Amino acid sequence: MKVAVLGFGTVGVGVWDMLEKAPGLERGLVLVRAGKENEDFKVSSMEAICNDESIDAVAEVMGGVEPAFSYVSMALKAKKHVVTSNKALVAAKGVELNKLAIENGVSFLFSAACGGAVPFLHNLSIATLDDEIESLGGILNGTTNFMLDSMQSEGMDYAEALSIAQKLGYAEADPTADVSGMDALRKIMLACAVAYDKLPVDGFSREGIESITAADVNDFQAMGLTARLVTSGGEAGDSVYAYVEPVLFSAGAAECSVLKNFNMAKYFGKNSGSIVYIGQGAGRYPTASAVIRDLYCIGGVPMFTDKVHEVVADNSACVHGYYVRCEAKDAASFDFEESRVDGENVRGIVKPIAVTAMHEKAKAIRDNGGKIFFAAMEK
Ligand code: HSE
Q: What average pLDDT does the segment 316-341 reach?
């Protein structure tokens, strides 16, 4: 099978390298920006790839919704199989692209878009054939995991941890997507769509790690707790619940041993029970390895079925206790189980509250110029 690669950045170079030695796969062309065609195999025209009948499949690893959406649509219409690591693309346009793939009789696979090297969506799509997925999620962003681990175990500050994650090729081109929780949210959107045929496109609750400070980390550590950015998803009537927020785990929880850029993806199947996958969630070769795996899965179990459709997420039934650090003036917004004054702040544990209500309270405080950090207490 001859493969064209769209994009020649961190992941694109990894895929190109791996294609050289992958049995049964062959290097085709690489799509680069105009003016960057400095080698024989590089082209800047998507038509050149679509019109090349020797190319069977396209690996899209350029990121972003456009022009990736236009290029992937062109490839599918030209009856090329498509594999992609682009979660922004699949989260925004997955239903439409899946329809195009079905119409043209080709595969559309995106295991590399969720969990880096971790074969989460791959196995989830197979699990849905004979099991009911009761819940899913876990740690699905390598950048924030690297940052939280580095802040906690090496005493790094936020800016230094982010800068190293960028240098190591873990972060997105604009790392806001990582630290805001948007990247993790896109991944739980895809997982819900694979598991339930329901792609949530609105109604989320999303909290990243942008508000965390070294003082917060010191405080958790003194309490024997470890912070991780965690995604949660599951069925909620005709819809799904899907949210992202920091969670504090006590020593001994499996999440505490997920270090550096690793992810921990999990689901609970009615028949299988708890299934957990741990592996590198970001980086050149971990992500490229998932792209290559998807190429080998072309023609097999589809990731989205013909029933996949968009829904509005419903998080109203999800309830947790929360750790909160806020300014003293905002403390009355919360029903604390226990709290203490720490300089100008109040820190404490809030009684169980709906996820939606907690996220709305934090938004209201920030809209009024206040500062708050919150993290769910491990369930
Ligand atoms: N920026 C992403 C992460 C890359 O850190 O997880 C892999 O999807």
A: 97
pLDDT of 173 above 90: no
Annotated catalytic residue, options 187, 260, 266, 351: 187
**207 C-beta closer than 6 A to ligand 1:** no
22, pLDDT greater than 90? yes
Q: Is the domain of 253 the same as that of 354?
A: no
In-domain check, residue 146: yes
| Strand ranges in 129-272 using DSSP code E only, listed in sequence order | 133-139, 198-202, 205-206, 225-236, 239-250, 262-269
From CA 342, how far away is CA 356, in angstroms rounded?
27
- Ligand 1 proximity of 282 Cβ (cutoff 6 Å): yes
The CATH number of the domain where 323 resides is what? Answer: 3.30.70
Using CA atoms, how far apart are residues 140 and 62, in angstroms rounded to an integer?
Answer: 20
- CA gap 159, 284 in Å, rounded: 22
Residue with CA closest to ligand 1 atom 4: 282
- Count up the domains in the chain and report the number: 3
- Give the rounded distance of the alpha carbon of 52 from its chain centre: 33
C-alpha of residue 93 to centroid of ligand 1, in Å: 19
Residue 187 catalytic? yes
CB 303 within 8 A of CB 125: yes
**pTM of whole model > 0.90?**
yes
Query: Same domain, yes or no, for 99 and 165?
Result: no
Distance 295 CA to ligand 1 centre (A): 20
